[in-house]
Write a structure and sequence with these properties.
The longest helix has 24 residues. The chain has 238 residues and is mainly alpha-helical. It has 8 helices and 3 strands; from the N terminus they run H-H-H-H-E-H-H-E-H-E-H. Helix content is 49%, strand content 8%.
Amino acid sequence: PYGGGYYPVQLSFQEGNALLASDPAKFKELVQESLRRQLTAINTLCQRGMRFWDYGNSFLLEAMRAGADVWEANDEVRSINRFRYPSYVQGIMGDVFALGFGPFRWVCTSGSPADLALTDSIAAEVMKKLMETASDASKRQIADNLMWIEQAGENQLVVGSQARILYADCVGRMTIAEHFNEAVASGKLAGPVVMSRDHHDVSGTDSPYRETSDLYDGSALCADMAVQNVIGDALRGA
């Protein structure tokens, strides 16, 4: 489990690779020593005002297994989801997901940059319209994504396929899709546009140490999101 992931601070990258191959147990020992050292530094900096969260790579989980000081101070039970720091979903993305916003993608099958530019424009116009009747919280999300899509072309974000990613709620996605269909039907777009979800959508992941951490009602240990996904995928013929 330690291959290709966290490398201990005591070794160079090359030394780490050599030790991982020759003595995995020693490598793990150094990794855990390094994790304890890093958590001590993080705790010190956070006491001075730094903000820290786990990005979803199980850093807090592995630090806990290494014996680092990672528990919430008032957690006497030592439950699996009471770390002193949040995961990025809990601390940042949770509010976004709670509004129904999540990432999705589209690809212009024509391969034409002009088609991608037009889809950017279509999506931007849809979001401007939706902003007029959105709640205050949703307006902030729409505004962020509007800025993103309006600047996507000039920032040259395409690598390979003429594709784009965007956050929107269900109404936003459906409305954008309808306008894409109309543009294809009218010939404004040279080819069809394929739309798909992102790998990390609103209900994409169950993980009591990360994505569903700090859900104290017990649902952190349930697979309700996964069950909903598999039922939905099955009904769609996946």
